[in-house]
Amino acid sequence: MKRNTFAMKIDAGKTGEFRLMLGKNWREITSLLDRMSADNFSLWQMGELVFGYCETPDGPEMPEFSSSCGRIADEFTGCAEWIARPGNGMRLMYHDFGVIRKNKELIRHRVFATRLKGEFQEEYKRRHDGLIQARGGKTDPGPDSNFSIWNAGRYIFGYDEIDVTMEREQTEEEHAQTVRWETGMLSIMDWITDDVDWLTGERHPHVIKLASHSLNCIQPAKDL
């Protein structure tokens, strides 16, 4: 399975126009996704940023993929600029895929975004590679069931599927570890979403799910 991501930045004051354009092109977008056998597509807005995620089968891309994606992407010119276009390949910075749950009914999503304070891409990856090494190659049984973090320029985007049946309160030790980790990460990045507002006391945009699509099951875009 391939994981595919893309990201864009909505122009100031153009959120309404962007959502109208999404609705206008939704049928063509979902038709392309079905032809690619793409599954688990979702589109997320956090302030002026938009992040997209989907999964496709392993193997070569369809010949029409690049041209079709490019044509649809060009439709958003004038209301948004691309941070990473579909098919251009954002860099995978971290993964903890664990057990992938096909049934999403009891899945809670966590999608987030940060911006590196400088050219800290390698430092960010080094820190997260350390987390992978600490697991010793073991598969995480959950609650995180499909977790990945992606990079484009100085932007960082995270996508996480959390099994709600396995969630529990952190122990005091786990909470202290979280505080240490998040405090350390603040030295190289600024949060765009509200994930650590509980720690910093700041206020950032909450993530909104704009749309989703499952294989051969068209769902209308939300909040349009």
Describe the structure in your own words.
The chain has 224 residues and is α+β, with helices and mostly antiparallel strands. The chain has 5 helices and 10 strands; from the N terminus they run E-H-E-E-H-E-E-E-H-E-E-H-E-H-E. It folds into 2 domains: 95 residues, Alpha-Beta Plaits (2-Layer Sandwich); 110 residues, no CATH class. The strands form 2 sheets. A 5-stranded antiparallel β-sheet has the order 4-1-3-2-10, with helices on one face. It has a 5-stranded antiparallel β-sheet with strand order 5-7-8-6-9, covered by helices on one side. Helix 1 runs antiparallel to helix 2. The longest helix has 21 residues. The protein is globular and about 50 Å long. The C terminus is likely disordered.
In terms of topology, how is this protein built?
Elements: E1 2-10, H1 15-35, E2 39-46, E3 49-56, H2 65-74, E4 80-84, E5 91-96, E6 107-116, H3 121-135, E7 147-152, E8 155-163, H4 172-185, E9 189-191, H5 197-200, E10 208-213
Antiparallel strand pairs: 1-3, 1-4, 2-3, 2-10, 5-7, 6-8, 6-9, 7-8
The share of residues in extended strands comes to: 25-35%
> What is the average per-residue confidence, as pLDDT, rounded to a whole number?
90
Order of strands across the main sheet: 4-1-3-2-10
Helix fraction, binned, reads 25-40%
